[in-house]
Amino acid sequence: MTSAETYVTYHRNTYPYIDPTQPKLSCAGKNVLITGGGYGIGKGIARSFAKAKADNLILVGRTRSILDGTKGELEAEFPSTKIHVFSADITNIEAVGELFVSVTSSLGPIDVVVNNAAFLSAVSTLQEANLTNWWRGFEVNVLGTATVTQAFLKTKPAGLKATVVNINTSVAHYGVFPTYSSYAASKMAALRMTECFQAECPDVRFVSLQPGGVDTDMYAKFHMPEDYAMTDIQLPSDTCVWLASEEAAFLAGRFIWTNWDVQELIQRQDKIVSEKELTSMLKPIEGDLY
């Protein structure tokens, strides 16, 4: 990732500037779709958008019982937001396409999509890997993200300004992680293709978000050290709401860490844009690439 300076403030918990209950972050009148929305980070993101008074939350996942449980919880806490659940495998192109047609015909256009669903293959060296399981990471993290995004773009009215937040990971670009090749490589592929989507669709803001080390079922599979400093789930959840606000427009096509302070990002926005910071571009040692 290209960036010339270190950010001074590093958050592990949410903070007042990104509080989704603020009028400036209101999502009233908006429809928000979240994949993997029944549990973990997806559920946290749904809750933050409900706090921001989104009109409709569309939660997509594979297990209907989990989705229904989350729907009940959110409806009880946020009665003004309507919760809709759909059971679907995001790699199923036909099912996802039908889902978007159904949702947009009944609720209207989707304003925000959060591609949160992901798959972490069994941790192992390539030599020992079950390649079917290893490849599943690419099917979900790359094809699944593309499938949902394509269905969204096909049903989005021309000219409608919208936001797509793709939940990514630090291991896509930071360090080398043996035994995690499927996850790291598929997430890097998702990051790079998202940058291409941004260039293709200037009326949509695409942002990739590293959510930090959040205590979820998937995180438990990482086998991180017990003293690893964790990030509270509300931080990436609230950050997603801020990323859907006009204040975050300058981050289109970029990758950010939820732990960075958004006010510091705002202060740096001219440099971020002019020098193409927070992108996956690798600058040559000297000269230019072409």
- CATH classification class: Alpha Beta
Which structural class do the helices and strands define? Answer: alpha/beta
How many domains make up the coordinates? 1
Radius of gyration: 18 Å
Architecture per CATH nomenclature, i.e. the level-2 architecture: 3-Layer(aba) Sandwich
Helix-strand string = EHEHEHEHEHEHHEHH
Shape: globular
Secondary structure: number of strands: 7
Biggest sheet: strand arrangement: 3-2-1-4-5-6-7
In the CATH hierarchy, the third-tier topology is known as Rossmann fold
Tell me the strand percentage band. 5-15%
Q: Name the CATH homologous superfamily.
A: NAD(P)-binding Rossmann-like Domain
Mean pLDDT across residues: 92
Number of helices: 9
Taking pLDDT < 50 over at least 5 consecutive residues as the criterion, the unreliable ranges are none
Summarize the entry for a quick read:
The chain is an alpha/beta fold.
What does this protein look like?
The protein has 290 residues and is of the alpha/beta class. It has one domain (16-260): NAD(P)-binding Rossmann-like Domain (Rossmann fold). 39% of the residues lie in helices and 13% in strands. The chain contains 9 helices and 7 strands, in the order βαβαβαβαβαβααβαα. The chain has a 7-stranded parallel sheet, with helices on both faces. The chain is globular, with a radius of gyration of 18 Å. The model has no long low-confidence stretch (mean pLDDT 92).
Task: Give the SSE map.
Elements: E1 31-35, H1 40-51, E2 56-61, H2 64-77, E3 82-87, H3 93-107, E4 112-115, H4 131-155, E5 162-167, H5 181-200, E6 204-210, H6 217-220, H7 234-243, E7 254-257, H8 262-267, H9 269-274
Parallel strand pairs: 1-2, 1-4, 2-3, 4-5, 5-6, 6-7
Helix pairs in contact: 1-7, 3-4, 4-5
Keywords: NADP, Oxidoreductase
Family: Belongs to the short-chain dehydrogenases/reductases (SDR) family.
Pfam family, one: adh_short
